[in-house]
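## Example record

The block below lists the input lines for one assembly entry, exactly as stored, with component labels intact.
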Amino acid sequence: MKGRYADENIKWIPALIGLVILLPFMLKGITFSYKYYLYILNTIGIYLILTVGLDILSGYTGLISLGHAGFMAIGAYTSAILVDQVGLPFGFSLVLSPIIAGCFGFIIGFPALRVSGMYLGLTTMGFGFIIRRLIIALREWTQGSGGLAVSSPKLFGYTFNGDWANYFLVWTLAILSIVASRRMMKSKVGRAFMAIRDSEQAAEASGINLAQYKMMSFFISGVFAGLAGVLMAHTNHFISTDHFDNMLSIYFIIMVLVGGIGSIYGAVLGTIFIVLLENLIVPVIEEWLHVLFQIEAGDIESLIFGLIMFLFIIFQPTGLYGMWLKIRIYWKLFPFNPKQRFT
Amino acid sequence: MKKFISFNLTASIFFVLGCSGPSGSPGISDNEILIGNVQDLSGPMKELGKLLPSGSNLYLDYVNNNGGVHGRNVRMLVEDAQYNPQKTVAVVKKLIEKEQIFCLYNVIGTSPVEAIRPLLEESGVPLIAPATQSGTMSDMSRPAARYIFHTDTGYDIQAGILTEYVIKLDPNAVIGVIYQDDDYGDNVLKGIEAIEYELNISVQKEAFQRGATEFSGQVMNLMKGGCTHVIIAGIVKEPIIIMKTAEAMGFSPQFLGISPTMDHRVALAAGSAGEGFIAANFAYLWDSDNEIPNLYRELCEKANVPVAMRGMYHYYGFTTAIILVEGLNRAGKNPTRKKLIRGMETFNNWNMAGTQPITYSRNDHAGAESVILVQVKDGVQQTISTWLE
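Predicted structure tokens for the full assembly:
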């Protein structure tokens, strides 16, 4: 009998795991500044856990969120408080904090039953503002806007100190998140999410409980964002309200859009692309502009992000992943590919 | 599978080739000292972010043209972190690991500096003159405190000095504070709460969000509270709008400001509403007749610095660069990061930077604990006090 996941191409998984394990060693071999690149890779890992969750909500279920930095903040602050103030082990907090963030997602799911589109976007954005104000108000635990120092992650007696150790923790959880979300989206739950996205009326007529699945989607997305927050807090050792401003939520949306909304791999590609663009490519562009035209670095980053988003929406709405699929099919059919399919 | 094995073999070769770090003190070559500066060039503080490094470079160019520090030129790399702690961590990692800087200097913002404490602790890179006046910078119980050399009087101490100054002038004064609800305001509140307890007074507190442009609610509350003196903990545009709003509402208390409000543009833009405004200041006025302000103006003329750029923020970059260069000088002919720290710790009431006298020791990196007060009279800032502690 054919298994549920028999159709899925999983050959890449061992290669990916091999690459993830060897990448830091390769970087150490190539460059003295490998710690800087490891930090960027860790940032990619943390962000992609969140964007994968955001894609489940926005790409698969069709519910927009402009407040995911808020869920991330809940995960980060909850874990910092549970571990450093309550004294719970990190392993316990790693499970509990994302669930608490997910519960907030569940609560935010209520308005999603009544509003949609731009109005839902504004509601979730408001949620982001509320969380920031809440963090400032609860200064007894959060230290207000002064920020909170956070301890290193500790699992099974091992303390993850520095970018090298953090890398393996972050990417283990990132790969697990990718695999889990892929599996989830291929299950009954994922199909229900997609049915809701395509037509709420048709989904309801097919017996899908809209309220239940919409709130479940917010919960799952909140769990992923909360997990990203936990990792961010414990690997950076410091969090403040400035870490979670609403621009970060927009930034996550850009990652998902550029990668290809409605595809887990798209969210992964988009996150890698945007973080590398911001940290490695934009500084080079700024330097060129300075050398060639004496233009000072300034808002060039926002300009580039805005331009990229604009170009992708107009010319490549399926994102990087869609582009990759087209290229793959093109070469598969070459030289018998009908021209109009790829124009 | 073959491809997979060959790929992993190649990767393993890179691993075997992995080598140790570079020898010698990072950022120091025969003819250059490389330092890293993190500013906000495109975020909420960009109006300051461009002025500070420009002022610093004015002095560093002067030093380099006069033989440098022990024969080495000082070169400053400026990175933009948009006042974002997460980005600050990324660019500081880049400066330390990739650019191999000798030390950090003038990193802007309280939460960005707090965010890089673990990095300073891990790398042992000193941070000279963080561009924030938060009292937390000189709290020696915090992580990496031994690597941070604060040059300014903390916001908490300034708030205490201003409140005490008001009470001395008028024991029956009703004081209010209007503060930015972030790490800056937090530190001001800490000072206010301490002085409330010490003097047994009560101060009315009104908050606003960073970037706010509308203050009528807060001004109305201060008016209702019968405040005779209002301390503003904002930057440049906030005191202007607050004083103009108060004037429009017919409310005319004596306004005072924490040092970020001391920029001369406040007096210029606030017009009649800003007349009489008193601000705490970390240094002698840039246009006063003192040795360092005179040198500053002379170099501004020589370098054709646009008039619009000249002022206290530009001057702040200039004076903190003087402190940095003195520290580098004291680190000796063969500087290391440890020697820089030891050199900085020999500052004892040193007042050659045109600022308040600076003192450091092994257990005290606060640098300064005093301010001078300036008041707007006929649209021009004038010094009205000596150094107050």
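Chain A touches chain B at residues 14-15, 18-19, 22-23, 25-26, 28-30, 32-36, 39-40, 43, 136, 139, 144-147, 149, 162, 236-238, 240-243, 245, 279, 296-302 (CB under 8 Å). Strands of chain A lie at 148-149, 154-155, 158-159, 238-239.
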